[in-house]
Design brief:
This protein is of the alpha/beta class. Helices cover 29% and strands 26% of the residues. A 9-stranded mixed beta sheet has the order 11-10-9-8-14-6-15-18-17, with helices on both faces. The protein has helices at 2-9, 45-53, 78-85, 104-111, 122-128, 130-138, 168-179, 188-194, 226-229, 246-254, 274-283, 295-303, 333-336; strands at 22-27, 30-36, 61-64, 89-92, 115-118, 142-149, 154-156, 183-187, 211-215, 236-241, 258-262, 264-265, 271-272, 288-293, 309-314, 324-325, 341-349, 352-359.
Length: 360
């Protein structure tokens, strides 16, 4: 099952709206087939593993990280393929909460005389499939907030001037996290200050760049920004107000950007309603959303209770008292000392530290 989980992770960021599943087929103690969900969500992991196993699948055991599907979608039910292949036993990590499955896949296998065991590595599988589960249960993506802070809890120099905080190895981890995310989100303030590209720039993984999402209520995104210039190569979605100016929207659309209109809060200061933003992204199929900035956006997601996981990278250097705080409206202790989050993992990455928190 650990191998199946590792295989499934290969698809993270590339299979949405489908979950990134891994499967391994074992017969007489030998692995005879393995597979993982392919880009775009199909073929599914189980048919991939069955194809590799061939005739050896008959009488074998299938380990799979999520309950095999039992409904006709863009592909036939995986449960039927498993029965037809003659698999004798299925070890499934966790049941799929999708109402179209929800135990029916396991039931179909049992009805065909296949032994089914459920629950092996369930906690790890639930974490790997958190985006799928969140989209099914709450109609929003699983939200990962990434913060890179200095030793004195700052994210930029005075005046929001960009400054290198973490080293090469930590930056590579962030780019891998981008590749494993369906979409990456920033606020318009970050775009105006940094003119970021928001792609994955790991050698050989450039094609795994996530959809770039910009929160831009008033459509201030410059037409000469790197995001707009690359919109036809890497998808760019601009989330804006339902009242945004039609002329500006048409100009961005003409440059290749996709606009999503959501409700604007009337409170001061006005802003986009974040629950509606997440619902709109879920409607587009996004299951794993990486929020990268800036300080106001990070604070807004935290205050709204919409952050599920936090990657906190800390560099060894100090920026100074005039630097920009990591969070706009609260101290960093809102994460590190919050009863709402627990530290799941910590490690040293080059000369920097990485702490991963998850919602309790």
């Amino acid at each position: 099952m650990q191998l199946a989980l590792a295989l499934g992770r290969r698809g993270q960021g590339a299979t949405w709206p489908n979950p990134a599943v891994g499967a391994v087929i074992v017969k007489d103690g030998v692995i005879v087939g393995r597979g993982w969900t392919q880009p775009g969500g199909r073929p599914h992991a189980e048919p991939q593993a069955l194809a590799r196993a061939g005739a050896a699948a008959r009488g074998a055991t299938l380990y799979v990280t999520l309950e095999p599907c039992s409904h006709h979608g863009k592909t036939p039910p995986c449960a039927d393929a498993i029965v037809a292949a003659g698999i004798a036993r299925v070890v499934s990590a966790i049941e799929d909460p999708n109402p179209e499955v929800a135990g029916q896949g396991h039931a179909r296998l049992r009805a065909a005389g296949i032994a089914v065991d459920v629950g092996l590595c369930a906690e790890e599988a639930a974490r790997d499939h958190a985006g799928h589960f969140m989209r099914v249960r709450a109609h929003r993506p699983h939200v990962i907030l990434k913060l890179a802070v200095s030793a004195d809890d700052k994210i930029a120099a005075a005046g929001h001037r960009p400054v290198a905080i973490t080293g090469e190895r930590a930056n590579a981890r962030v780019h891998l996290l981008r590749a494993q995310s369906d979409a990456i989100l920033v606020g318009i303030g970050t775009v105006l200050a940094d003119d970021p590209l928001l792609t994955c720039r790991l050698p050989g993984m450039e094609a795994r760049s996530p959809v770039r999402v910009v929160l831009d209520r008033a459509l201030r995104l410059p037409g000469d920004s790197r995001l707009v210039h690359s919109a036809r190569q890497v998808p760019l979605w601009v989330v804006t107000s339902e009242l945004a100016e039609a002329k500006a929207a048409a100009k961005l659309g003409g440059a290749g950007a996709h606009l999503l209109r959501v409700v604007t809060l009337t409170s001061a200061p006005p802003g986009l309603a974040l629950p509606e933003v997440l619902h709109a992204l879920a409607d587009q199929g996004v299951t794993r959303l990486l929020v990268e900035g800036g300080a106001r956006v990070a604070s807004s997601f935290l205050t709204a209770g919409l952050v599920d996981e936090i990657w906190l990278l800390r560099g060894p250097g100090r920026i100074g008292d005039d630097g920009v705080p990591a969070l706009a409206t609260q101290p960093l202790g809102a994460i590190t000392q919050s009863p709402s989050f627990r530290l799941r993992a910590s490690e040293t990455v080059g000369g920097d530290s990485l702490m991963i928190y998850e919602r309790v």
